[in-house]
């Protein structure tokens, strides 16, 4: 079984709709992240959480919100989807090792299309 | 904001050729990771380098961390079609957060 799972894997929605992307992990990591990736580009951080009571904005948090329901679950919401939020969304987890060697483990991604 | 610049952005080569991609920053990182992402999948860690000047080898892939821990390179010897993908570098700071570069898209043609 995959350590980091994302649901749904694909989603088509209309402008103005509220949608939620979910992420679950079985790695027991405290840290969880949401990124978006646009064609030909790297990863841009939306939100991150270092533990259940910690939520931090990333570089592109406008238009998004998150909820850390438990150590294993971190969901991303688009309150009112717009077409430029069409992208591939990745959830990741990490556990900061010794010497600050942070390795992130990524889910398979959710492909979102906003019409 | 700590930026990581990767070059080249796109690279297309024939199978059997050698190549090097670069990851540069003006910031010092406590460690640096290289990930590879295949189409339709999430990035997967290839290697972590920690010590300035460190060289790590993973079969045909050679990774080097700069002496000042601000830059890194990935060299692939005798590229194969299976090496095709997006290569991402990520630098970790002592604050415990990673910054990703924009990636190098590598295409290896048969």
What topology emerges from the helices and strands here?
The complex is a heterodimer of chains A (115) and B (110).
Chain A: E1 4-7, E2 10-13, E3 19-25, E4 31-37, E5 43-51, E6 54-57, E7 64-70, E8 73-78, E9 87-94, E10 104-106, E11 110-114
Chain B: E1 5-7, E2 10-14, E3 19-24, E4 31-37, E5 44-49, E6 55-58, E7 61-65, E8 71-76, E9 85-92, E10 98-100, E11 104-109
Parallel strand pairs in B: 2-11
Antiparallel strand pairs in B: 1-3, 3-8, 4-5, 4-9, 6-7, 7-8, 9-10, 9-11
Task: Describe the protein's architecture and organization.
The complex is a heterodimer of chains A (115) and B (110). Chain A has 115 residues and is mostly beta strands. Chain A is 0% helix and 56% strand. In chain A, the strands form two sheets. In chain A, strands 2, 4, 5, 6, 9, 10 and 11 form a seven-stranded mixed beta sheet that branches. In chain A, strands 1-3-8-7 form a four-stranded antiparallel beta sheet, with no helix packed on it. In chain A, strand 5 and strand 6 (54-57) form a beta hairpin. The mean pLDDT of chain A is 91. Chain B is an all-beta fold. Helices cover 0% and strands 54% of the residues of chain B. Chain B is built from no helices and eleven strands. Chain B has strands at residues 5-7, 10-14, 19-24, 31-37, 44-49, 55-58, 61-65, 71-76, 85-92, 98-100, 104-109. In chain B, the strands form two sheets. In chain B, strands 2, 4, 5, 9, 10 and 11 form a six-stranded mixed beta sheet that branches. Chain B has a five-stranded antiparallel beta sheet with strand order 1-3-8-7-6, with no helix packed on it. The mean pLDDT of chain B is 92. At the A-B interface, strand 5, strand 9 and strand 10 of A face strand 5 and strand 9 of B.
Oligomer: heterodimer
Largest sheet of chain A: 7 strands, mixed
What radius of gyration of chain B results from the CA coordinates?
Answer: 13 Å
List how many beta strands of chain B DSSP finds.
11
